[in-house]
Write a structure and sequence with these properties.
Layout (H helix, E strand, L loop, with lengths): L4 H43 L6 H77 L2
Helix pairs in contact: 1-2
């Protein structure tokens, strides 16, 4: 029996959706890590008191402000990556839906063809009974 190309396409689309969902979960995990790192930098920045060591506070502050800026950039990249993966999931689901619509269209054509064939047989029987 020959392979059904639509079934193969349907399986491929399911696999693409699954892979896109997995990548989205991974992107969400990376974002969570970046957000936690950002929170840790903020906590460390707020925990130091300027009066505690005036000579080292400037170096401390400069280092942590740079770390906060770098962490904000990393978090923004992680957010953008997650949004891209969210869009990839939506596109994969859309492609999967199109395959379902093709399958429904094929089934409708097959039903129509079966009805026509049945009507043709009924017409043939009717003509044979009338003696035409």
């Amino acid at each position: 029996m020959p392979r059904d190309p639509l079934a193969t396409l349907e399986k491929l689309r399911r696999l693409e959706v699954t892979a896109a969902q997995r990548r989205l979960v991974e992107a969400q995990a990376r974002l969570a890590v970046e957000e936690a790192a950002s929170a840790a930098v903020e906590t460390e920045l707020r925990s130091e008191v300027a009066d505690a060591a005036p000579f080292t506070y400037g170096a401390f502050l400069a280092r942590l402000l740079a770390a906060r800026q770098a962490q904000a950039a990393a978090t923004a990249r992680a957010e953008a990556a997650m949004e891209a993966e969210r869009m990839a999931v939506a596109q994969a689901r859309g492609a999967e839906k199109v395959v379902g619509m093709l399958r429904e269209r094929r089934a409708a054509v097959e039903r129509r063809d079966a009805m026509r064939a049945s009507q043709t047989r009924l017409d043939d029987v009717s003509q044979a009974m009338r003696g035409d």
